[in-house]
Amino acid sequence: MTRKALGRGLSALIPSAPAPAATNQLPPANGGVTKVPIEKIRPNHLQPRRHFDPETLSELAASIQQHGLAQPIVVSYDATSRSYELIAGERRLRATQLAGLKEIEVVVRQPKDDKQRLALTLIENLQRSDLNPIEVALGYLRLMKEFGINQSALGQEVGKSKSSISNTLRLLELADEIQKSLQFGQISEGHGRALLAITDPNLRHAVFKKILEGKLSVRETEAMAKQVEAGGPPPGEEEKSKKVKPPKPADLRALEETLQHSLGTKVVIRTKKNPAKGTILLHFFSFDDFEKIVNVLKKQ
Q1: Cβ within 8 Å of residue 225, ≥6 positions away
Q2: Which pLDDT does position 7 carry in this prediction?
Q3: C-alpha span between 203 and 209 (Å, rounded)
Q4: Could you tell me if residue 226 is inside a domain?
C-alpha cells in the first residue's frame, strides 16, 4: 500500500528532498532509496513509540532474513557527524539488526529542526498504522499542540475523519491502568471506546476488570457498558442480586418458631407470590424423629 502523501499544512514545512551533501562526506540519496551501514544510524530522540514487542520483533527479523526489508526506513543526514538520525522505522531497524544484517535501505529526508522532525516522525508512524492506540493518541495531541492545528486539519494531514481523531484522543481520558492495557494489547481500541461510555470511574474500572477476566468481545463490552450506564447492577453483582432474597416477614418467623417448639424439629414455611398459599417443610433426622412428628400431628 502506498503511503498517503502529507497534506498542504505540514508538507509545506518539511522538504521532500535532502539538503546537498558537503564534499567528502557521506552523500544522502536524492529522495530515492539507498543503503547505509546500520552503525551509522542513531536513534530518533523524538521517538513517539514506547513499546516494542519482542515476539513480533523476532517474527519481523525472520521475515527480513528470508524476504528482505519490504519498506525502507526514513532518516535524516547530519553532515557534521557524517551520520544519520532515524526519523521513522525503529521497529524495522531493530529487526534488521536482530537479523544480523549490517546495512539497511533508507530514504533520506531533511527536516530543518526538531519541530519538523517531530511532525515527520509522527506522520510517518501514524500512517503506517503500527503504533498502539495510546501512542497514536499522544502523537495526535503533540501534533495539534506543536503546530496549533485543530482536529479537522489534523484529520486531513493523516487521512482520518474528525470523529476518528476525536475518538482516539478521548482514550487519553481513561485511567492509567486501562491505558497500559491498550498499549500492551490486552484490550483493543474498541474496548476503550466502549469503556468511555461509562461516566462513573468505579463502574468503568469494574467493567474493565470484567473484560480481562471474561475476555469479553467489544460487542459484549458495549452491551455491559450500556447496562451499567442505564442503572443496572455492576459487573459481578448480577448473580448476587438474583440470590439475595428479601427477609422473611416477622409473623412467618414467629409461626415457624411456634411449630418448631410444638413438633420438636426444624420447620420452614415458604409462601408463594400469594402469601395465602405456600408449603411447610418438616425436617426429621432419624426414624425416631419421624415417629415423634407423626404422633404429635395425630394428637392435633
Answers
A1: 194, 195, 197, 198, 207
A2: 42
A3: 10
A4: no
**172, part of any domain:** no
Is 146:118 a contact under the CB 8 Å cutoff?
Answer: yes
70/127 Cα distance (integer angstroms):
16
| 193 and 148 co-located in one domain | no
The bridge status of strand 278-282 relative to strand 83-88 is unpaired
138-172 residue pLDDT tens: 888 988 888 888 999 888 877 789 999 999 999 99
Helix (H) or strand (E) holding 263: helix 250-263
Do residues 158 and 40 share a domain? yes
Cross-strand pairs, 267: 282
CB proximity list for 43: less than 8 A, separation 6 or greater: 85, 86, 90
What is the Cα Rg of the chain in Å?
A: 34
Q: 3-state class of 94 per DSSP? A: helix
What pLDDT, in 10s, does the model give residues 14-25? 444 444 444 344
Do residues 7 and 157 lie in contact, with contact meaning Cβ atoms separated by under 8 Å? yes
3 state SS of 279: strand
172-207 pLDDT, tens digit each: 999 999 999 998 889 999 999 999 999 999 999 999
Same domain, 159 and 45: yes
CA dihedral (61, 63, 67, 73) positive or negative:
negative
Domain span including residue 203: 185-218
Residues 101 and 193 grouped into a single domain: no
Whole-structure pTM value: 0.57
Q: What are phi and psi of 270, to 5 degrees?
A: -120, 125
Q: Please name every residue paired with 278 in a beta bridge, in sequence order, or none if there are none.
A: 271
Q: Which residues are known to be catalytic?
A: 90
3 state DSSP class of 281: strand
